[in-house]
Amino acid sequence: xxxxxxxxxxxxxxxxxxxxxxxxxxxxxxxxxxxxxxxxxxxxxxxxxxxxxxxxxxxxxxxxxxxxxxxxxxxxxxxxxxxxxxxxxxxxxxxxxxxxxxxxxxxxxxxxxxxxxxxxxxxxxxxxxxxxxxxxxxxxxxxxxxxxxxxxxxxxxxxxxxxxxxxxxxxxxxxxxxxxxxxxxxxxxxxxxxxxxxxxxxxxxxxxxxxxxxxxxxxxxxxxxxxxxxxxxxxxxxxxxxxxxxxxxxxxxxxxxxxxxxxxxxxxxxxxxxxxxxx
Length: 279
Ligand SMILES: Nc1ncnc2c1ncn2[C@@H]1O[C@H](COP(=O)(O)OP(=O)(O)O)[C@@H](O)[C@H]1O
Ligand SMILES: Cc1cn([C@H]2C[C@H](O)[C@@H](COP(=O)(O)O)O2)c(=O)[nH]c1=O
Ligand SMILES: [Zn+2]
Known about the structure:
binds adenosine-5'-diphosphate, 5 helices, elongated, 14 strands, binds zinc ion
């Protein structure tokens, strides 16, 4: 039997200890207890998340209010969708919503795509350092089996980060909310670096109780940023990276940035071709 922390309610991926929650040093945190549910789970641990851990002081400049935070257990499921470009605070918003649900005494678990290897597999980490243990999965359909049926049945709230990488997002949200009565909170990119619909994120809008599009700050002018510009010459849709590869931009700088990058790309391509023909 894995050690548990008294009164914890969140179902968090093992291995987990309080020390695995890392937040910026300027934002101290402490654990507190809530009455625990009658759970007999062999694997997941129970966690209380102190609100100060997910302090609003780390909010993005464009932080918007949460449209709906569930106050009590609902017999019906819910789907809430958080979208926006990179660096908009999607993960921060997801972690805050999860914390709010946990504070309301609901049992929560968080999933992220195994494709996102940026900060190790077992944690969701925001760009400014908030960290929460999670279940890293290839596909969402494996979640119930991974967590265990009993644990799944006890869950009230499921958070999903990097939702653009899950092909079975629609079916999972449908089943979790409609059939199993779960509250599903989904965070992901609505668009890729070419502003095309990314994965299945937009497909779940018709399933949603609420949709929130967050914005970042344009790295070039400071205005609101709606888009993500890729700074490199790579062209595949999926390319894991952070500020080294991507930057948030406003419409004007997306357009001018794309022109610069596409020009650079075609210059590089023609240089490669020329080099090839000299060989
Ligand atoms: N251009 C940037 N480069 C690096 N970090 C940024 C940039 N813009 C904002 N941030 C930080 O990223 C935080 C949001 O991180 P996160 O919640 O992980 O965003 P998202 O999940 O939308 O990518 C902001 O609060 C801010 O501190
Ligand atoms: C625009 C864009 C992004 N990605 C990748 C890059 C990151 O690994 C994630 C997004 O992370 P965040 O939590 O929203 O910051 O997605 C990609 O693969 N392709 C793209 O076009
Ligand atoms: Zn701009």
